[in-house]
Amino acid sequence: MTQRITIDPITRLEGHGKIEIFLDDRGEVASAYIQIPELRGFERFCLGRPAEEMPRITERICGVCPSAHHIASARTLDSLYHVDPPPAAHKVRELFYNLFMFEDHTLHFYFLGGPDFIVGPGAPAAERNVVGVIGKVGLEIGGKVIEARKIARAFMAEMAGKVVHPVFGLPGGVSKPLKAEMVDRLKAAAPGLVDFAQFSLKAFADIVLKNQVYVDTILADHYAHRTHYMGTVDANGRVTFYRGRLRVIDPSGTRVVEFDPSDYLTYIGEHVEPWSYIKFPFLKRPGWKGFVDGPQSGVFRVAPLARLNVADGMATPRAQEHYEQMVQTLGGKPVHSTLATHWARLIEALQATEAVQVLANDPEILDPNVRRLPDRAPTEGIGAVEAPRGTLIHHYATDPNGLLTMVNLIVATVHNAAPIQMSIEKAAKGVIHGGQVDDGLLNQVEMAFRAYDPCFGCATHTLPGEMPLTAVVRRSDGSVVTTLSRGGA
Amino acid sequence: MATAAFEPRIVAFFCNWCTYTASDLAGTARMTYEPNAPVVRVMCSGRIDPQFVMKALHEGADGVLIGGCHPGDCHYQEGNYKALRRFRLLKRVLGQLGVENERVRLEWISASEGDRVQHVINEMTGQLRALGPFNGARS
Amino acid sequence: MAQKPKVAFYWCASCGGCEEAVVDLEERILKVVDAVDIVLWPVAMDFKRKDIEAMEDGSIAVAFINGGVRMSEQEEWVHLLRRKAQLVVAFGACAHLGGIPGLANLSDRQQVFQTVYSDVPSLDNQAGTVPAVQSRVNGYDLHLPEFWDDVKALNQVIDVDYYLPGCAPPPDLIWKAIEAILAGTLPPKGAVLSPNKACCDDCPRKDTKPDRIELTAIKRPATHLADPETCFLAQGFICMGPATRQGCGMPCIEGNMPCRGCSGPLDDVFDQGAKFLSAFASILAPKTEAEIDALLDQIPDPVGTFYRFSLPVSLLHRRKPGVRV
Ligand code: SF4
Ligand code: SF4
Ligand code: SF4
Ligand code: FES
Question: Is pLDDT of A451 > 70?
């Protein structure tokens, strides 16, 4: 009789999920499924809405990465209304977007996927969150993390009205120019953000890379998949987030195709399963072959690791240094180990801060001409950005009055849906044997999806220093090293 | 329940100075008309808040009839123009929400047009009998 | 010291933005973490459903629930939390009003599945597969929650004690609510925890809103530039300010975009959309039916705009079933 183990709900992600693991009579994992038990139906209820409202509607798909949908939607409106925003508008959007990429990646490393590493995958459930993280990295550093997030989000709100949920994206640009006074403050703050991003990479090196247990975990086979990868590259073939061409490589690293997002339908299809509300994108060539990796399978991966795999390098100098170090440490490209995504994410966060610094110091960022009004009737439009969690594609069609008649949304995490399903099954088979199951092992299964930081990666609470707090620091085997406490606790 | 036995319930909002007076006139002149539309007297059609219309449908009405003075005759000058603007916009919202066109109606009926009250109520009752119950919100 | 009060956070048909808003309390959240014992927060902590089921009824002091109720599992969770919690707070527009996902009440399940799993151009689904409550795969039984035809706001499923408005609720408003809960100074049950006054009174552009507006044209953000100082309605843009509670700090207006009403209606209003409708109709100039209709044609999507966040709690709740568009 097969035994069924259920992890419900899966946690430290944005959105709902459930994992079902089936053991055979020897107690070995026969099959495992990650099921997305919810649907809201944006592609349906957006029909009939005015297209220009979509940046403020589709961002409600995900409150962790609303800026990704907001900007992808604004780019789609440019295409739909056949209008190219003035240069300053693109730069304002790109400045905003890099602030977002930095803030979101930082959030994930310290509070979502990161705890599995910083606190240790086997740590007790109650520790595997930011309390544990702070315990491990220390309160003073915890405070720095909160400060960096606060600074970035405050600038984002000033630029776009709100940070949950921005409002300024429109066809042909943005709704208002930046104020000189704010740009001066951002120029002053930018070096601090760059330092913080480098600090995070140092923390990753000290906590993760110097610990052989973790490095073995990163390179463990059950956390690796040899799949195709997709990401956006700029004109120089470097990692970019705001706009560029989509590039696909096969598991061996050979480039399969590079195309403009407007041709996405030629290359990307979506598969449906009866046991999950999420759809599973795949490459039409070589086509859907099931939840299998390898060169014959259309399953592809997106998100930080995929971007670094497809690109020829990073677009900024400091990030490029770390990129070269990672590739060298992990034995060349493409890197298949899912858990290396954490490393790639931090390298991208560094690039984002360097981009913020360049854009904040670009005189054109203060040009008041940030909107070009469309002068042609809307017809059809496609827009894509790299969300923190991977390629995000919007595709709208409207009637001549701009009311939506077709909405197609291929959301970042959806790209990873099939790979996540594969990762869960492979991880379960890797860690569960002889029917021996405990919370720590189950968490190692959940780790397989957290590395993707699926679009359901969200925030947890943050803990700056001045409050009484007890943080227990444990060795990876769970024994207590020391208990840190500050006043009163 | 066969629709034949179905008797539509219509809420009629009539402005005091014109349509309400006309319905009184129809009553004294023994003009018989369907009893399906109890009348709510309001001082002016401009007083009718679109929420009243939706609340009536929500509470079980199958139709709503608004009666007011002809444009230019409103006792408060602007009242019926306000009512017309609201009504035209409300009809678009109701249409998007699947409320059939016959269910909510606006008529200009002056104090002397008792026969008009009779005609409108009879016509509307017949239409809603055919259309069947609303019970949209209660489903 | 006395046992810390237990607090739970849960999310139904939501986006995670309400969770981010809690984190945006920044340092203040530490006061929360120190004062209470968080026993459930799927986004952040590894507590599971069985942990909550094992708790005694009423042993959770406050459950903050965000997101509307659209799936059977969500309905089960909110009933479970209602049993386990003394106070339930509907947190954010989705729980309070149904939210943007509530616009799906213009369709039914069949129409949603048709679009999502058959019509969109990238689908390769000739077999017409759709998610099923019960499915058998490689010999294993897998279950999925059911997708209801309707989105419901929280108070249409369980008894709700308080409402925290906004999409997402601004951190300062959340903080005021938490302070009131911890200090025991909450208003009477059923209150919306934000000022019962219209946005216009708190709007940076209120001085540019004339007493009498007579519009002869209606503008759309897609095709018209907005003056950054003048009241949007006065310029002819649809702005839901007059029919929406203040308390959000007017960030959209600061962002030079009109209000879309996410904080919901004032206390004495049954239907936010109808309330705005009458307010907006009263500032139109035309007098004849033909002229009025010509002007109204410039409003692209009345229901989708007036009910952007509140269709489920509107008097008519949804598009009448069975009536195809
Ligand atoms: S109220 Fe807004 S932020 Fe909160 S869950 Fe709903 S859509 Fe997301
Ligand atoms: S209508 Fe809008 S812009 Fe004008 S005062 Fe009210 S909230 Fe402000
Ligand atoms: S201005 Fe309007 S839409 Fe914007 S946050 Fe406030 S209530 Fe919500
Ligand atoms: S008094 Fe009859 S419409 Fe105003």
Answer: no
* Helix (H), strand (E) at residue A73: helix A66-80
Q: How many CA atoms lie within 13 A of A373 on its CB side?
A: 9
**pLDDT tens figures, A280-295:** 999 999 999 998 888 9
Q: What is the pLDDT of residue A461?
A: 20
User: What's the pLDDT score for residue A462?
Assistant: 20
Are A129 and A113 contacting, i.e. CB atoms less than 8 angstroms apart? Answer: no
Q: Can you read off the two tokens belonging to residue A273?
A: 């399963």
The Cα–Cα gap between C286 and A359 comes to 49
pTM of the model: 0.93
Residue B67, burial from CB neighbour count under 10 angstroms (0-12, 13-18, 19+): buried
3-state class (DSSP) for residue A393: strand
The pLDDT score that the predictor gives to residue A62 is 87
Tokens of C276: 């705005």
Is-contact A221 A360, C-beta < 8 A? Answer: no
ipTM: 0.96
Q: Is the pLDDT of residue B14 over 70?
A: yes
Q: How far is the CA of C300 from the centre of ligand 3 (A)?
A: 20
- pLDDT surpassing 80 at residue A485: no
Q: Which range (A240-249, A436-445, A450-459, C112-121) has the least confidence?
A: A450-459
Q: What is the reported pLDDT for C45?
A: 73
- Tell me how far apart the 2 most distant CA atoms of chain A are, in Å: 70
Q: How far is the CA of A136 from the centre of ligand 2 (A)?
A: 49
Ligand 4 binding pocket includes B87 (Cβ within 6 Å): no
Residue B109: strand, helix, or coil: coil
B58 to B38, B129, C41, C178: CA distances (angstroms): 17, 18, 37, 36
Residue C17 — very low, low, confident or very high, per pLDDT cuts 50/70/90? very high
Q: Which two tokens stand for residue A80?
A: 């739909």
3-class SS letters over chain C: CCCCCEEEEEECECCCHHHHHHHCCCCHHHHHHHHCEEEECCCCCCCCHHHHHCCCCCCEEEEEEECEEEEHHHHHHHHHHHHHEEEEEEECHHHHHCCHHHHHHHCCHHHHHHHHHHHCCCECCCCCCCCCCEEEECCEEEECCCEEEEEECHHHCCCCCEEECCCCCCHHHHHHHHHHHHHCCCCCCCCECCCCCEHHHHCCCHHHCCCCCCECCCECCCCCCCCCCCCHHHHCECCCHHHCECCCCCHHHHCCCCCCCCCCCCCCCCCHHHHHHHHHHCCECCCCHHHHHHHHCCCCCHHHHHCCCCCCCCCCCCCCCCCCC
State the Cα angle at B27 between B22 and B30, rounded to 5°.
125
Is residue A57 a contact partner of residue A404, using CB atoms and an 8 Å limit?
no
Q: Is A479 helix (H, G, I), strand (E, B) or coil?
A: coil
Q: pLDDT, tens digit, for every residue of A234-276? A: 999 999 999 999 999 999 999 999 999 999 999 999 999 999 9
Torsion angle of alpha carbons A77, A81, A83, A85, nearest 10°? -30
Side chain identity, residue A267: Y
Task: Compute the count of residue pairs across chains A and C with CB atoms less than 8 Å apart.
Answer: 307
Closest atom of ligand 4 to CA, residue B19:
2
Determine the pLDDT at residue A470: 28
Contacting partners of chain C (3+ CB pairs under 8 A): A, B
Q: Looking at the complex, does the CB of residue A51 fall below 8 Å from at least one CB of chain C?
A: yes
- Residue A382: in which H helix or E strand, if any? strand A380-387
Distance between CA atoms of residues C307 and C314, nearest Å: 8
For residue C48, what pLDDT is reported? 78
pLDDT in tens, A122-181: 667 666 666 666 666 666 777 788 889 899 999 999 999 999 999 999 999 999 999 999
C164 CA to middle of ligand 2, Å? Answer: 22
